[in-house]
């Protein structure tokens, strides 16, 4: 039986946004056991760091990827280069010219270049790791799944290989729906049930439409074969005109119902208690009208639609108008703020609609505990609006900084680097 990927007893840091992983990060302490041998220290550092860096890669494959030489950037001070030619570094060796370090100054290793912290830099070139670093997936395994399922493009072409090594300037793009699913909050149990019912009804409706279309085609073929000529073009009758008009009114009622639902679920402008009661009553009336739309005339439906539109406008500032003029009828044109608020609410609903068919929570919300992992390395340029990123360059080491993100300290990465050297 395979061991748990996230576990609390034996702490292993993983490349995921899981809450257990966040808890392990908070309580993780890199201990260097003084009683262990150098070989044991290297093995422990390698074991702990490999659980985070490229755990989805086989050890033999990673051993072939490992390079002992790391890329680094050394800033050159033009003033120092102009004043000296390098001979001062060899002047006075052993004759008292060496300066003692002031303990009150900055630490000695602050300006050291952490070459050995770049031990896992080749893994950052992999496509699945770059997708995780660009915040397009909640884990490297999920990023790997996106690539294998054909949801990722590199330079405009589909790339099904998660181990593809990116070159400087490569652009990769992930399907937007997959990114919304990976970075969005999961559904609640009620939303999952309603989504299943909606998908079931949509499948049944599509099957029924396909059956009706097939039956209609069969009837047309039989009629054409019997008469020896093509089916005549349908003539528009008053009944068909009335049916089209009722279909248009049905869409208007549904749009009005959607507007009422938007106003009820608007988080920025939360409705008052009386307004909620009025909106819910209006939704019930619209639902009752939709159930009897075929029994009513077009004139009655038009007047009902106008009255519902006025009621929807009245529900915005019901309390204010009731206090000011309780006997006066309220007109939507008298409330300019209502039109603006309704427009903004509808715009927000269109940008972030409630869709039960989506596999993530709608309106979309970020995953819980995502903020602790929300950072992007320097070597990536990310555009979250189109879910694309550019691999600018390979990660490098700078004085006091390694561009390879890692939760482990420098001494542990040094031990892991020594483990992968050929001479152990």
UniProtKB/TrEMBL annotation:
* Compartments where located: Mitochondrion
SUPFAM superfamilies named in the record = Alpha-L RNA-binding motif (SSF55174)
Q: Which InterPro entries does the record associate with it?
A: Ribosomal_uS4, Ribosomal_uS4_CS, S4_RNA-bd, S4_RNA-bd_sf
Q: List, in alphabetical order, the Gene Ontology terms for molecular function in this entry.
A: rRNA binding; structural constituent of ribosome
Which Gene Ontology cellular component annotation is one that this UniProt entry carries?
Answer: mitochondrial small ribosomal subunit
> Which stretches does UniProt call biased (Basic and acidic residues)?
206-230
Where does this protein chiefly localize?
mitochondrion
| Pfam families (UniProt xref) | S4 (PF01479)
List keywords of the entry alphabetically: Mitochondrion, Ribonucleoprotein, Ribosomal protein, RNA-binding, rRNA-binding
Say what the protein does: Component of the mitochondrial ribosome (mitoribosome), a dedicated translation machinery responsible for the synthesis of mitochondrial genome-encoded proteins, including at least some of the essential transmembrane subunits of the mitochondrial respiratory chain. The mitoribosomes are attached to the mitochondrial inner membrane and translation products are cotranslationally integrated into the membrane.
What name does this protein carry?
A: Small ribosomal subunit protein uS4m
